[in-house]
């Protein structure tokens, strides 16, 4: 497990292997060097408990279960977990109910934070982008809010982050208005990847000979994530398992990020 105490970033990876399956040493060594992946032999009947216990500990209990009892049928499980907790450089100072306009045209009052932040601000005809730094960190939280008649799907279809950040101006002061966030998400990624053209990996024609001499293929890729955003900062956790301030100033900035409709957010 890799850990940065000041930034509260924890990344863990472990390969769980049943006794009858032999993993090639070069593969294990390369994964240990590049990803610090651990390795553990497990009896079939203990696979579910071993994987879930590892993921729960790595995510500080935020993802208590990743797989079910069917795990005993899988010779190999590679589990990856991420825990991220960070305070904003300037915490939000005001949270009140505000209207949020859903994609279907309905409205709902949601707890919305207001605060002054300093970060990159970009405005185009279709969206507004803003980010805010975390305390003592190279990471930032960002939002992309569609503008006018443009939808979030429109924006995401044409958004290229590398170009966006490359052309970003100097950091400047802005007012953020954004709902608090508490999201739990889970997905089986096999269908998504298959539709994207990754088909052979999930079929009997899969070639994983660099990993093991056993004839195996990937059964599924299971992903679970939790993301929390409040006045102090962000807590985000994720697990993936492939089977096989308060601020007072003299004036208010003119720039504003008002996330009161479906928006894109993340950590970069």
UniProtKB/TrEMBL annotation:
Pfam families: Serpin (PF00079). GO terms for cellular component: extracellular space. One of its GO terms (molecular function) is serine-type endopeptidase inhibitor activity. It comes from the Eukaryota. InterPro entries: Serpin_dom (IPR023796), Serpin_fam (IPR000215), Serpin_sf (IPR036186), Serpin_sf_1 (IPR042178), Serpin_sf_2 (IPR042185). Residues 1-265 form the Serpin domain. Belongs to the serpin family. This is Serpin domain-containing protein. It comes from Steinernema carpocapsae.
